[in-house]
Each structure stands twice: as C-alpha cells, then as structure tokens.
Amino acid sequence: MTGILMTAFAALGIFEPHTIPDVGPEALVFPARTRAEGPADLFILEDHKLRIYSADGGPARTVHLPQCASAFDVGAAQDDRDRDLIVVHGDKILQYSMSDESASPVELFTMETIFSPPAAQPHPYVLTTTMDDRTLLALPTDDALELRRFNGELEARFPLTNQAHPSFGPSFSAWPVEPVQTAPAGGFEMRVSHVYEKTVELPETMKHQPRQERPYRRVTPSQMTQIADLGPESWPWFPLRADGDDSIRVLYAPAQPDLSDTLIRLRHAPTDEDDQTGVTLLPARRYPGRLMDPSMDMPDFNGNGYVDLLLWSAPKPTSSIDSIVRTLIGRTWPIRITVHHYDPIRERHEPTPSAIITCRLPVLWMMIHEDGTPLRNVVLQDFTGDGRTDCAWSCDEHTFQVWRSRETGFSDRPDRTYEFPEPGMRIEQRVDFDGLGRTSLVFRGETTVLWLYAKPDETGQ
Amino acid sequence: MMALVALIAQGAFFFVEAEAPGIQVSGVNSLTGEPTVNFRHADVNGNGLPDLVFGDRVIFQTPDGFATEPLPLPEPRAASLVDVWENAVYRLFPDRLERLEWDEGDWNRTEFALDTGIAPKGGGAYSLSDRRRTAPPQLSRFLHDIAQDGIPAVVTADEKGIRIYALGSSSPYADYKSVAYHAVFPAIRPARPTTPNLWPPEAREVVLPATEMSCRFYLDGPRLTVIDRESLPDQTAVFRITRYRIDSDNGYAFDPEYTQEFVTEPLPDHLQPCRLTDNDLVSFAGGEWTLSRDSMVPSPVFETSVTTDGGHTIQHVRTRSFRPLCLFVDFNGNGRRDLIAETTGLAEGGLRETVTRFTTQHSVRHGVQVHLQAPDGTFPPRPDIQGQFNIQIEHPPLQSGELYHRYQSGELVNLSGDFSGDGFRDLVIQERPDRLAIYRGSASGFSSRPFLTLPMEPGWRFSVADIDGDGLSDIIVRFADAEAGPEGEGKYLFLTRSEDRS
Questions:
Q1: B174-217: per-residue pLDDT in tens?
Q2: Distance (Å, rounded) from C-alpha A93 to C-alpha B42?
Q3: In terms of CA atoms, which chain B residue is nearest residue A362?
Q4: Which end of chain B is less enclosed by CB atoms within 10 A, N or C?
Q5: Which residue in chain B is spatially nearest to A322 when comparing CA positions?
C-alpha cells in the first residue's frame, strides 16, 4: 500500500484512520471523486504532484502535472465511466486517464483561456459542467465563458459581464506612499491595485442552486465580553431548530459578574420579518459554564430536531504567586463540559445536564483560546449517520478523542481516542465523503495528513 | 485648548507650545522610521518658514508658531487631487491642472489644460473621474521633475501603466500635453484561489476566478522602478524589480540600453520592499512573532528579518517578547538605516521570577539596541548601541492596566525623532505616567539623563514628527476630548526650539 498506513484497530473504530506521510505545509488537500459512483477520494496537490487516496485504502495513485499548468478538474468525458483529469496547460486542454496511471495525457484541443498564462502551481477549478445531460468543458476566456465538447467544438458561449471589485471599493486604485518606503528621499512613490471579478449569466437550467446556509449571529470572543453589558437585541443567536428554521432563536450572552456562566433567552418571532408585533422574548435562564460557539455546528445530540447546549467551565486559580507557579509547572488544568438538551414540551433547555465530561487541558490552552474555548479541534457533527450529533476534540497535542452520542447519552470516557502521527495536528476539513450524512475529518501537521474516514457500519450504511 | 502646559527648558533645547489645528500624525512606518502626517510643507507666503498645506487649506507659520485660523484654498469646481511644488499648490482635475500661488493677500490662479491625448481608461488619474464632485480635495502626489529642468511633469497611473504629461513650452500659459504612456505594470493574473469546490456534486459550480494586479513604482529623477510581488504556494514571495530610464529628450520614451530586470530569491511572506542602504538597491525587511519552546512555558519571540542583496543572504535578529515601533531608523544619520531591537525585562529569568514580575511589579526594565548597518549592507549580530531604561506602568501587568497595554503595543518608546538636529536619533520614552523623557542619542549611545522632558497626564498619548520643518522633531500630544469636534480628540503641539533659534 503506497503511502497509507492502515491502523490495525481501525475496524473497531468510528473512523478508519489513514496516515499519509510526507505532506509539506504548502500542499493543498481536497476531496474529489474519481469514480462515477461511490465515495469521494482525497487529493493532495504538492507543487505539480497530485496524489490520490481512496477511502477503501487502495494504493495511492500519482499524477505529475506539467510545469506551468494552471488549472485542473476531475471531470468525466462520459457519465458512465470513471472521471478523467482535465488540465489546462498554456493553451492546451489535456486529458489524463485516472484509471491508467501510465497512460500519456491526451491533448483534446487548444484555445486561449484566462488560465493560459503559466502559474507557479496549478489549482483545482470546476472546468466541466452539464448542459442538456451532456458533459461539457467550461472554459473562461477574457470576455466569455465557453462551453465546448471534448473535441473542442463550441457548444455555447456566454458573455462575461459586471466587471467589479469582488468585495468592495473601486476596481482600480492608486495611492501615494507618503513618506516613501522604497524611493530615495524626495522621490515619488505610488502603489497601484487592480482587482476585478467577472460574472456570467447562465441559462436557468444551468444555474447553481446555492446551499441555504443556516442563519445565525456570531460575535468575536473579544466582543463577547462586551455583550454582557448590552441588551438582548445585541446578543448573538442561533436558530433553535436544527434544520435552520429561525422562527425561534436562542439568544445567548455571558452572565455577570465574572462572565463564567451563560444567559439563554428564547425569542419567538413571526415568519414575517417586518411584523415585530408578535415577537416574544422569554425570560433569561442561567446555565453554569461558557457556551461553546454553536453557530458552526449547531449540535442536536439526541436527534429531536432542536439545537442543544454545550458548555464548558474550569476552576479558577488563586492569584498567589505560588498557586500560579504550581499551575504552570503542573502543565494541565481540569475542565468540565456539560450537555443540556432542549425539551420542546417545557420550552427550555434542561437545567440539569444530561452528560458531564471532564478532561485536563494544557495550561497554555487555558490562556490562549481558539474560537472561544480552551479545547482544540472541536467538532460537533454526526460521524455515524444516525441523526445524532457526536462530539470530538483534542485534550492534548497528541490525541483526538471522540464521544459518540447514543440514545442513553454520552459515556464519561471517550468512545475512541486516535493518536496523532505528529503532535499538534489541526483539523483542516470536515467532509461527508460518501454523501450519507457521516462526517469524516482531515487533520494537517507539519509533514503529515491524518484522514479519519467515517466508515460505514456493518449494514453498509 | 486646555490649560497651557509649562514650558520645559533644559540646556540648549526647549519646547514651546503651539496651536495644532487639524494636524494629524497617524503612525510611523516601521521599516523607515518616518512618521505619516496629513499635510505637506511649502513656504506658500514666502516668509522663509514652511507652511502646512492640507487638501483644502493652508496654515501659515510665523516665528511664534502657526496661525490659529487656516487659510482655505479656493473652492474647487470638481473633485481634485492636491500636490505642492516649489511653494505653490497644484490641483489636478480630470481635464486640467491648476496652480495656486499666494500673492499679497489673494490666491493667484493659473490653469493648464490637460491635453489627455488618448483619454485614460476609467481609473485614470487615480480614479479622479470616478470620484464624486462633492468628494473633498485629497492631498496626493502627481508632480515630478522627470526632465530635471525644474519644471514638474504630471504623472498619473491607470490599470496598465503610467502616463506622463509635460508642459508644452516654457510659457506659463501653455498646456500640459500627454507625451508618453508606458504600460509597465505586471499583467493581471488570477487571484489566489479560494477553497476548491469539486466535492460534493451539488457544490460544483463554475466560478470565474477574480483577477488582480498590484505593484508599487517609484520615480527618482528620470529613473522609473516597478516592483512586482508574486506569492508562491510555500508562504514565500518573489519580487521582480524592473528599472527604466525615461529620456525626456526623446519624447519621454525609455532608453532601451538602460532597462534592467532583477528577480529576488524566494523571500519569507512577511518581508516588504524598503530602502535601507545608501546605494540604489531595494532591500526587503519585516518582523514576525514566533513562539520559543526553550522554556517550560513557551514565550513569544520577535524576529526581525532583512536582506539587502535580493534575498541571497537573510539576516535575522531575535529578541524576547517585544516588537519595536520602528524596526529600522537611520540612527546615526549616515544615510543607511540601522536595525532596532527592543527587549522587555518582564520575560527575563526563570518561571517564578516572571510570575513575580507579572503579579507584583509596577515598572518594566526596557532595553533598546541598535545594530548599525555596515557599508556592505550587513548588520552585526550583536548591537553596537544599547540602553536600559525603567518604565513605570502604574499597575502590575497581570492587572492589564492601560499603560501596560500601551507599553506592549510599543506606544511608550519612540526612536524616530531627532530633537537636537545632530543627525542622531533621540529616544523618547514615557517613563512615568506623568512624564515624557527624551534621551539624546550619539555615537557612544544614549545619554544617561534625559536632555528634554515634558509633563504628561493620564490618558495622554504622544507622536513624534517635524511639524514646523526646521529639522528638529516635535511632539504632538493627543487626548480624548468630547468637545473637540468630530474627532473627539484634543491635541497639544510642542515645538522643539534651540537657543540659537530662540
């Protein structure tokens, strides 16, 4: 098996761990599917070398893209066969077979595109699309998006419009550098910037349906400390319903005096945003601990369709010098994590936690929070596809612990602990590789990728 | 303005308080040690003292300080950019150039049609045509003496290059004609791509990548230098430096024998081009925080990196836990910028000592080190000049007081000014909540006692810049003042005077 070390106890776990060595920090890691059916594969692009790993642990395939290639896609020539790699190399449009590594690329045709200038490293773009059930190459030029057959024949041409800055501000700007930074004293120095993005109007049948993002209002950790002094209209919120329906919002804020507890208020609102007459704000309830920001994952641990609360708390060190020194030398500090389910009958999150998880964290993590919590690599997702949110995080630099949510709740010890092949790995991607509602995870270290693939259970689900 | 602060006179130098209407010093360029101000100097009224030219007004300087009432520039009829040249104010409009000269109590206005030849594209003349008519006039740069004949050309930039307008004849009433257009900017290229969207199938959308071009250019007499930066995937960047010589005797075309191109080695992403040496080479420098894992508790280390030879050799200076306001200043006035490192005593010693300092100490031992640049562009690994100073921060660091925060962000120590005019930079330190002290810099180091001091009050912040243009740095003190207009900030200006001038 090339490059993948399968861990022996993988069959017993929630994830199949795949350790992929020799991955530099500049490598691009992303999912794409090389087969017509089945789970996506994991691609690693480093310089011009593309490595492809399949979820079943089969041997890695390697494709060497040509120097100066600028864009590529994993797209099919025909829908009923495995995907081929489409590569833009200067004006050449190349096709690489994914089923035969040794096969030479086929030059489909040549044309000038916006990807024609040489690039330091190629990048994946969507270069194939479907129109009237046919797979076509989608190649942007300076003034149009052209859809071409694989023999180069032009099928459709859509003019590009609306030249504008992709975010805000003028497309072109020039401003003086005062005082000069590179010019001699008294010289004349300017900086210029020209940034624009073109858009294309596609037929309705080809328009992409953007995924509906779940609404929420989030604040930064530093803003969170100020929220405590403001009214509920300024509080951050997330929808109570796990499906994103925000007719009932969960407003939250840290509670005075020391911001170590959380206030929760439910806000019922009519569907019509303009009709504020029916807005009801329920009284605040106080929960011990600080809320882990739920806006990213919106956990529903018992699968009842409502977002639950996950809070953390930690004892405070006394302020004596000896106590602080002992804490620093001890290197770890206890933390307590509690789960409060939402009860739709009582219309509140339960005051008594349904689960309590304790662990010890490095002291440095208690001082430097990421995303508002001292834990690292926090993931609240469904890893098993049973509709209940599981939770996982790192309590140290060397491991990743997973708690599986069951009908009976969480156990007080992690269901699985995965060892990192190198310390300090960080989550880079959360991906449903097979589209069945199971979230897999991809971690990056300085030289290694750890792919925790959420494997199907015994029934194949 | 609030109550006058007592003048401080010690030795040959002293401060006098002056009005500071609308003056802003908005920071120091950490790679050059030069402050950014919102005005330009020009002796508009010809009294021998530099006046302050803003986008919409002029403040005259008198021997006693600055006039309390600014003199407005004539109301412009369209959006304009403002520049100064030899004591006259110039305004650039989309179709003309205007020169304003103050003549016996009135503005003398001269207009030059701007014969654009081929009209600039939408963003030409710094997006002047896009600016709203009501947009306030903006201080900028567009005048440069390319021909070295004392007559400024107008230089504007658009998406592809620069356009040069030159005066048609020596007659003051002649028009400025478009004499050259040089498409010297790098080609536009796809911007750094975003996250790939090849999976899941419903996320696959044809996305047209944004395209971008950014660069900097400078003119030094007839020489034009364009600096293009290209990011590489491995957190590095290469710079392509192209030099041209504009031949004003040949229709402002490029001298083909002069054009040179130089590409640097891949440089760390945080390095920026800057001018550090006294030769014609562009240097690259920058600083970043790293985490030292040498001790039981990892501590932050600040690392300054610099190359003066295009990346062939990169020098690094690491100091424990302090980022200086200025990474480089020309400390000894020899035309070469020197590397500044600063250290904080808070992180010295073992764990217990550090904790004790953070919990109990009301002052910080602060170190300033100068690595003088050698003629070959290198910096010695050990500093040539060192100084140690005590800074009182009112409360122990653990209590997170305002002064400690200002200390941490580098606001209490400033080595950008020369208050004595001897060419050596002097060190300004807010060493007590109520006192600003200025230590004189020299070839042997810093004076043991301050040669100038200034009383401060809680909440005051200071900046250093040569406001009156006499070659001696001055101090601007800012403080919150709800009654001070939309800025909500009051200011005191303290002009440095020597006994010679007084």
A1: 789 889 999 999 988 877 777 888 999 888 888 888 888 999 99
A2: 60
A3: B297
A4: C
A5: B352
